[in-house]
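Continuing the series of single-chain predictions for the mutant panel. This is the parent chain; the variants come on the following pages.
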Amino acid sequence: MDFSDRYVALGDSFTEGVGDPDPTRPNGVRGWADRVAEQLGRNNEAFGYANLAIRGRKLRQIMAEQVEAAVALQPTLVTLYAGANDIFRPKVDIDSLMEDYDAGLAALRATGAAVLLFTGFDARSSKVFGTMRGRTAIYNELLRELADKHGASLVDYWRFGEYHDWRMWDRDRMHMSTAGHINMANRVLDVLEHQRLAPAEHGIAQDGSATAVRASRVAALRDNAQWVREHAVPWVVRRVKGTSSGDGLSPRYPELTRL
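Parent structure:
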């Protein structure tokens, strides 16, 4: 099928959709990018969507594995989120990483596609990930320079205060929940609307699954212990072993399709 409007999503678990489960979809997730694609293609039979993102991918892997594949799909719109899995490593050369980001972004913009980039999230609410605020801030400033240089648009995740509400996060505290993905889809659509790339009426309603629960101190301690056992320790072990949660996985939608 020929598509005149072609949206290609690139990145890691953030864009793959981890934290927003849907057993009927590839890799068992849905995510904000699928939701954006559904809105953009709602009244457009000529709209096609591909999602090349794979959880655990670091920035250079994304540039090496996904950018060329995206260019081959002749996109008219690209979203790109990369770098979080590098920032959380013990050592990282952010300046060097952003040189690779610069080259990948140049290749994407050379297609004539509109490109949306994401700043990193300000994790000040997390005692664990909040220690990386300084790295993320440096990354964000360099990213803003690249966006200006290449004429890309920004989805400014760093400034989205609603993500300091833990209902926006999955149980693993690393990935957005369904509510977080829905909210991000709306945020992306807002930017696209400003660029006249999305319909003015695009709001996606929350599904009601996010409920506020005030845990007792004992319950909170129990939840923290469970989180360490089920999520934090396996995350650390993968990094020590040099393995990834995305090992063996394929892109969810490697070719343009209609959802």
